[in-house]
């Protein structure tokens, strides 16, 4: 698997309306994607060449101990196959949103790591 870049940084939230009020109203960010799928709700804000996301999904719990990282891959299906072959359990997904494919696994300490592939035309 070849990792190209960090696709996004995501912070889990418990109340999307309250969180959007902070990120949009307080920080002045503009929503670039809002998607609800399979029990999850993701809102993204493009900032320069990066993306900050806030989301609600099974197993995502806000914590003062940190957020989540999404790693952009060349071939999403191959990356998922490699992870499964290595015995890594997929924690959430794979799912498809309007702009990408993604799945989350956990590192040995339980931290969430996203495997991510943007769809053509989305950078």
TrEMBL record:
Which stretches make up the VOC domain?
Answer: 5-118
InterPro entries from the entry?
Anthracycline_SecMetBiosynth, Glyas_Bleomycin-R_OHBP_Dase, Glyas_Fos-R_dOase_dom, VOC_core
Organism, as annotated = Puniceicoccus vermicola
Fetch the PANTHER family from UniProt. Answer: GLYOXALASE-RELATED, VOC DOMAIN-CONTAINING PROTEIN
Query: Protein name, please?
Result: VOC family protein
User: Which Pfam families does this chain map to?
Assistant: Glyoxalase
